[in-house]
Design brief:
heterodimer; A: mainly alpha; 6 helices; B: alpha+beta; 4 helices
Chain lengths: ~120, ~160
Amino acid sequence: MLKKPEKTFYKKFAQLNGCCYICNHLVANYMRRDVFRAIAYPSPRAYPVSYSGHGPNALAEHFDSARQAVSKYIMILTECEVVTQKQFNPEKMEEADIWLERFRKMWENRFDQLDSLLKDL
Amino acid sequence: MTNNFLFEKDLAAKKIHVVREFSAPVEKVWKAWTDPDILEKWWGPKPWIAKTKSMDFTVGGTWQYFMEGPEGQKHWCYVTFIAIEDGSRFAADSAFSDENGNITPGAPVGHWDNKFIASGDKTKVLVDLTFDSETSIKMLVEMGFEGGFTMGLNQLEELLASE
């Protein structure tokens, strides 16, 4: 029998920006892309999925669930468009850009040396 | 600048694409890339200097060299040539190693594919560089050119100013 989560659950998660519920039973009973089913039967076990990029691993650890199960819920919710998965990590991008820029400068430097060398060949 | 320098990155594919035009015929440019005596004169971005231990520019042959930094730091590299189309293209795998040519475990491996295209008395060089992992690019820059890099940039600026 499905139980609705207590009110405090909603309240608590509503405070977290971009959180939603993932229903435990959805995988077994409602493998379909129906957003109303996704949100209509929340199980006592709910997972917040924040947009700031908690991946399935972190969620699984936090809620003591199997990573695979969490991944499945996210997949269903993504199909329902309840959540949008944006794997964007600005710090990582920035870091990569800095290194690539240095790499680019290195090449520029190298080629400029080759330029002057070619003149004398 | 009129050398048509192009630097494109495709992080998802772990690939860097570089294009540069040189004011010299393709024979000369090819020589500068494949003759160790000339190669080591420009391969090291200042103030780093490339020094060759051995080079065998044949398919399966290797180029063993090190980059020497301004404070005497040495970074050994081990390059294996995997394809050569004389005068127009060569491909190579490049890795960090010790002085005996033992590849450093876990160090980045870069796959090079360099093409040389003649256009009149100029030559266009196309470099495709693919890495095994995303961290490789960072490691490559860190390991090879830490410290001396700012200096290199200053020298570049001086060079550009004097032209």
